[in-house]
Amino acid sequence: MAHASSLTRSRRRSAWIFLIPMLAILAVVAGWPLLRTFYFGFTDANLSDLSSYSFIGIENFYAVYDGEAYGLLIDPEWWQAVWNTLFFSVISVSLETALGMVVALVLNQNFRGRGLVRAAVLIPWAIPTIVSARMWNWMLHDQFGIINDMLMKLGILSAPIAWTASPDWAMSAVILVDVWKTTPFMALLILAALQMLPGDCYEAARVDGIHPVRVFFKVTLPLIKPAVMVAVIFRALDALRVFDVIYVLTPNNPQTTTMSVYARQQLVDFQEVGYGSAASTLLFVVIAFCIMAYIMIGRVRLDEGGH
Amino acid sequence: MADVVLKQIRKRFGPIETIHGVDLNIRDGEFCVFVGPSGCGKSTLLRLIAGLEDISDGELRIGGDVVNDTVPKDRGVAMVFQSYALYPHMSVFENMAFGLDLAKHSKDEQNARVMAAAKTLQLEELLDRKPKELSGGQRQRVAIGRAIVRKPRVFLFDEPLSNLDAALRVQMRIELAKLHEKLNTTMIYVTHDQVEAMTMADKIVVLRAGTVEQVGTPLELYHYPANLFVAGFIGSPKMNFISAKITQVSQQSVTLKLESGKEVSLPVDGSGLATADRVTVGIRPEHCSIADQDTALFTGTVEVVEHLGEAGLVYVRTGSDELFVARVAGDTAIKTGETVGIQAAEQDCYVFDTADMAKRRLAVDNAPLKAQMALN
Q: pTM of this prediction?
């Protein structure tokens, strides 16, 4: 650094000049609310009067009154929400990756009308979540829903199921809708990776008579793995923060309450800004932990453009 | 080990036919080179033999068996691609072993085969490396090694040297020739470079626009090109063509009048030609010499002189659109702007009729070629 030439120094200076507006805006719209939420987590702030609150240390997380413990860290509903979130994330992201891979492999083949199919596949992803969740809400309706109607006509069901309200089915319904909506996104990212693959390797494999299944596992999969790992990070981040689809599809169902839903409930419904902020902070910690663990276990390299 | 026989092979992509009925007989152990300008169908023909493209019409036999509908694997061919087509995530060893059938070859046999190929190609030190850690020439050797370990009946090479620099290309050319000598397996080699074709081939197939123009040994093509296209394609710098008018014709010689007014008598079979026919005379640059203006075939103004060191190339404007090229001694004193006369021996000239077909030359004197022809 000390030996940087004047040219390097002036380049570095102009880089900072270009970066400053972006950093300033980020600080205002992201940095400040984030720090404020973080701080609220250590106060007794209430939504009815945000002008007066006091610092209470870690009491939102853990406190003992008269020999009885209170706080987020021992709230069974919070831990249920954490479990729900992790369960939802693992199952839905796994299904989306597997299905997305299948769709991408199909879309990577040459067939008539491929362009049309590629565009059509994206429709679920293009519909706003609120709209698609509402749509599925009607389709899964216990009395008037088309799903129950069809399953009963086919003789699979004898009585309608309350898909979104029943404790047994609510999580499945949520995962179904999320998989339906997000598989196209996964497929698109994997398709992009597939199209980067060297075509001549496949011709070499064909001349050598290597079975297509072996080629998939030994050539295709290792080569697209870096791209898939990054795609999974994107999706995992989304899934761990999931809110809208659950809020619309299965409101107030403890079986599907996720960390985000829990935090919003505390913050808005119960007006507990302090407690809700504490939950949001913990949510951040849980997600950060999950992603770090994933990156370390999966040995994902984010710095080498996927390789 | 197998011969490859093509009978009226055709290839259509939709309504467009790109290979128009190719007949070819490649003998067992032969090094056969497909050569031609880009787009002539030489790579397509190779891919048809490999089984990467379906044959639209005709019959392909490898080792006697009709293999039109046989999958590539069962044709017993191995292919080396222009881009090497190595698996980027596998080591050199894995790349070479990957093509071996796990069911058919035990681990020990796989190891033995890969090690043997690595030894032949001097890759032993590199077996643990990934392709990106290798130089272009090393990658090329791995690609060849991958083909060798499969012990194919026929090797197919698709422009394997075109991504290498000039010096390495010469070296690999020699290594490939040695490899062929050692393995003695049928090899089919595609290139656009006539020097590669001339130096390596037992048999050259010259292709143009999906049809075979001529098949022959390198020296046959050089001395007896079948037509104007082959004559122009084989040899570097390419053959010069000048037009002339026949004044006298017989089965032993053709006398013609050049545009310069000079009359010459050439030792070629004139049957099929008639007096007053317009023909094309071909003269290779290496057969030209600079002569006095009154004895020369024609004269012209020097436009460019290229000094190659061992020789000089003199580009002469003779009135026609194309420059006439003469290969002269390296220490030539000829300068741009000079007027020079060009001379060539009668027995070194080629004559092509109005349909661009070559007339048989009668006074070719080339010992190796004579020996070859006596053998056949």
A: 0.80
